[in-house]
């Protein structure tokens, strides 16, 4: 009898990153300013700020990040040493089209990614490429208000077509937008849509929400994604495209039917809304009432419905760090979270950044997504952000990270035995990098420590943590030795 409790042969073990959080070299070799280059550093107590001009008094963590731009050879060699089968990274749009509206790409930017692909090929590592990981040309925010404008679609398509053509023999797996559902969350118009003005052209007040702009921008992203899928399949019919969700799994706090319905509505509009459009190719019926209640009227062009129908994706990916509860009782204790918090779950522990740790929630999530779409799944992000300290011998014994990952991987194995078609796992972030949420270096995720600190100091030296050897063994044993 087959042992169902094992990872399939060829399972894509690996790690994930994003250009803005690792590359640095923010203005080198012709690179333009990206929206995230204007994000200041912050902390759990102090929100990151968007500045419309560079403020010399501020710290911008993406500008140097961990200097992957100059150190990629060493980093990829270390990934190969761990046995990576897959490496997820994003191409930084502003390296290819610095302002976003040029007609010709920046050769130096392309040459950088040529080198990355060559290096990955050397070690037989399969790339998983995110076309946009919240990195939009800032120039397009200033001139056309980012994704609020339909014109973004043509700029994005020019960019995606250039990279899909150039790397048609290097890449099979593409993700058009990182965490496309992020923009369904209030106050994420800038991060997820590059939007800086309101409908009257005045600077947007980031403390006030604007659902109309956010959902209009999302419609443009849906169309851009579908057109990219269609164009990509023309360029190389073997290309595979993935949806990518930030999956904050919602549980009802109690079996009170009010809580159950609340959790169902949260899952619909904050998670499934985007994956339903990307996988099924049309707007779900449950969104109609939501739009009415939020006062959202979408501008769609004739032909959009057909584009969405034709440009559906092939596989599902998502980031998973935690789960939260929802409750009809407004007085319940709250917890923090990735992009979004919620009601505290009395059965779960929290990380130092107040994210609830829930490995079984990952198995639940895998089941719900697989049941819904019946296409292969990849976990594109999962990991533990923690403060790492070095002992007197220079070792970083991150047993807490190993525990976190081990428990999640066990649940993946169980999900596979229960019938889920899970084909890959790229842990976030395989090397310490700038935190998206807080802009900190102190919040570390990597198997590889980077000597870089929040005050900007540090040698940028790479040091293997205890989890490095542990993950190497996990991959070598195809998930048997946890
Ligand atoms: C995901 C993002 O939401 O969470 C990553 O895709 C991010 O870019 C990751 O880094 C972890 O969040 P944080 O805030 O701890 O960096």
What are the segments in which pLDDT stays under 50 over at least 5 consecutive residues? Answer: none
Number of helices: 14
Distance, first to last CA:
23 Å
Q: What is the number of domains?
A: 1
In oligomeric terms, what are we looking at? single chain
SS-derived structural category = alpha/beta
Radius of gyration in whole Å, from Cα? 21 Å
Q: CATH class, please?
A: Alpha Beta
Strand tally, please?
16
> What is the CATH topology descriptor?
TIM Barrel
Strand order of the largest sheet: 1-2-3-4-5-7-13-14
Mean of the pLDDT scores?
Answer: 96
CATH architectural name: Alpha-Beta Barrel
How would you explain this protein's 3D organization?
The model has no long low-confidence stretch (mean pLDDT 96). This protein has helices at 19-22, 68-81, 93-96, 107-122, 138-144, 151-166, 189-193, 211-235, 257-280, 287-294, 304-310, 359-373, 399-417, 466-476; strands at residues 12-16, 86-90, 126-130, 173-175, 240-246, 249-252, 315-319, 323-326, 334-335, 342-343, 349-350, 356-357, 377-381, 422-428, 448-450, 462-464. It starts with 11 loop residues before the first strand and ends in a 6-residue tail after the last helix. Helices cover 36% and strands 13% of the residues. It is globular. The longest helix has 25 residues, at 211-235. It is built from 14 helices and 16 strands. With 482 residues, the chain is of the alpha/beta class. The protein has a single domain (12-246, 268-320, 357-476), classed as TIM Barrel (Alpha-Beta Barrel). The strands form five sheets. Strands 1-2-3-4-5-7-13-14 form an eight-stranded parallel barrel, surrounded by four helices. Bound molecules: 6-O-phosphono-beta-D-glucopyranose. 6-O-phosphono-beta-D-glucopyranose binds next to loops.
């Amino acid at each position: 009898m087959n042992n169902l409790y094992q990872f399939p042969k060829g399972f894509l073990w690996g790690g994930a990153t994003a250009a803005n959080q690792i590359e640095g070299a923010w203005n080198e070799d012709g690179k333009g300013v990206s929206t995230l280059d204007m994000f200041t550093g912050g902390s759990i107590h102090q929100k990151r700020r968007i500045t419309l001009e560079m403020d010399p008094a501020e710290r911008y963590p993406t500008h140097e990040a961990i200097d992957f731009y100059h150190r990629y050879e060493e980093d990829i060699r270390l990934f190969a040493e761990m046995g990576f089968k897959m490496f997820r990274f994003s191409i930084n749009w502003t390296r290819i089209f610095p302002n976003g509206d040029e007609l010709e790409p920046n050769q130096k930017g392309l040459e950088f990614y040529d080198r990355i692909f060559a290096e990955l090929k050397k070690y037989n590592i399969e790339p998983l490429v995110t076309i946009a990981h919240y990195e939009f040309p800032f120039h397009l925010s200033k001139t056309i208000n980012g994704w609020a404008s339909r014109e973004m679609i043509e700029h994005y398509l020019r960019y995606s077509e250039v990279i899909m053509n150039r790397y048609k023999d290097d890449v099979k797996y593409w993700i058009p937008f990182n965490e496309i559902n992020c923009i369904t969350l209030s106050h994420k118009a800038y991060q997820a849509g590059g939007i800086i003005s309101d409908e009257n052209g005045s600077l947007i007040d980031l403390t006030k929400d604007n659902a109309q702009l956010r959902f209009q921008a999302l419609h443009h992203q849906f169309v851009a994604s579908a057109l990219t899928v269609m164009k990509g399949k023309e360029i190389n019919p073997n290309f595979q495209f993935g949806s990518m969700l930030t999956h904050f799994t919602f549980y009802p706090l109690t079996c009170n039917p009010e809580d159950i319905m609340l959790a169902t509505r949260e899952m619909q509009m904050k998670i499934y809304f985007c994956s339903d459009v990307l996988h099924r190719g049309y707007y779900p019926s449950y969104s109609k009432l939501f739009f009415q209640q939020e006062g959202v009227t979408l501008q769609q062009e004739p032909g959009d419905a057909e584009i969405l129908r034709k440009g559906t994706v092939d596989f599902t990916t998502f980031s998973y760090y935690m789960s939260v509860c929802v409750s009809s009782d407004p007085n319940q204790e709250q917890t923090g979270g990735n992009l979004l918090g919620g009601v505290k779950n009395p059965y779960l522990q929290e990380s130092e950044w107040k994210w609830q740790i829930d490995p079984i929630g990952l198995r639940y999530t895998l089941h719900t997504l697989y049941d819904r779409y019946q296409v292969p799944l990849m976990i594109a992000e999962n990991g533990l952000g923690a403060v790492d300290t070095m002992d007197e011998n220079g070792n970083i014994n991150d047993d807490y990270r190993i525990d976190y990952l081990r428990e999640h991987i066990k649940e993946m194995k169980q999900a596979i035995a229960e019938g889920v078609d899970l084909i890959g796992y790229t842990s976030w972030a395989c090397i310490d990098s700038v935190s998206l949420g807080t802009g900190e270096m102190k919040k570390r995720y990597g198997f590889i420590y980077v000597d870089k600190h929040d005050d900007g100091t540090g040698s940028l030296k790479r040091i293997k943590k205890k989890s490095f050897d542990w993950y190497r063994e996990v991959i070598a044993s195809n998930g048997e030795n946890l």
